[in-house]
């Protein structure tokens, strides 16, 4: 929590003689030895496959999506316009 020097300063400031003797008698823990990791070997070159264009998708069979949408919605819109109720005047 506190280092040895900090505890000594606190003990001297407070005038506690027993704390100074107790703290001074404790040996400092030895730092752990430095670990040296060997550098990893250089990666070996890898041959990349040649680029190939993806095959083109075959077009959909039948009418396009826009034509199909108009084929279904146009008669429905026309029917709504013709069959709407009119004013009775």
UniProtKB/TrEMBL annotation:
<keyword id="KW-0812">Transmembrane</keyword>
<keyword id="KW-1133">Transmembrane helix</keyword>
<protein>
    <recommendedName>
        <fullName>Tat pathway signal sequence domain protein</fullName>
    </recommendedName>
</protein>
<feature type="signal peptide">
    <location>
        <begin position="1"/>
        <end position="25"/>
    </location>
</feature>
<keyword id="KW-0732">Signal</keyword>
<feature type="region of interest" description="Disordered">
    <location>
        <begin position="25"/>
        <end position="61"/>
    </location>
</feature>
<feature type="compositionally biased region" description="Pro residues">
    <location>
        <begin position="28"/>
        <end position="46"/>
    </location>
</feature>
<keyword id="KW-0472">Membrane</keyword>
<feature type="transmembrane region" description="Helical">
    <location>
        <begin position="64"/>
        <end position="83"/>
    </location>
</feature>
């Amino acid at each position: 929590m506190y280092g040895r020097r900090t505890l000594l300063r606190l003990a001297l400031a407070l005038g506690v003689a027993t704390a100074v003797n107790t703290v001074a008698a404790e040996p400092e823990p030895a730092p752990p030895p430095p670990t040296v990791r060997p550098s990893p070997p250089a990666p070996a070159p890898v041959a990349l496959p040649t680029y190939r264009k993806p095959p083109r998708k075959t077009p959909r069979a039948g009418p396009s999506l826009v034509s199909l949408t108009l084929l279904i919605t146009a008669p429905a819109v026309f029917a709504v316009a013709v069959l709407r109720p009119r004013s009775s005047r």
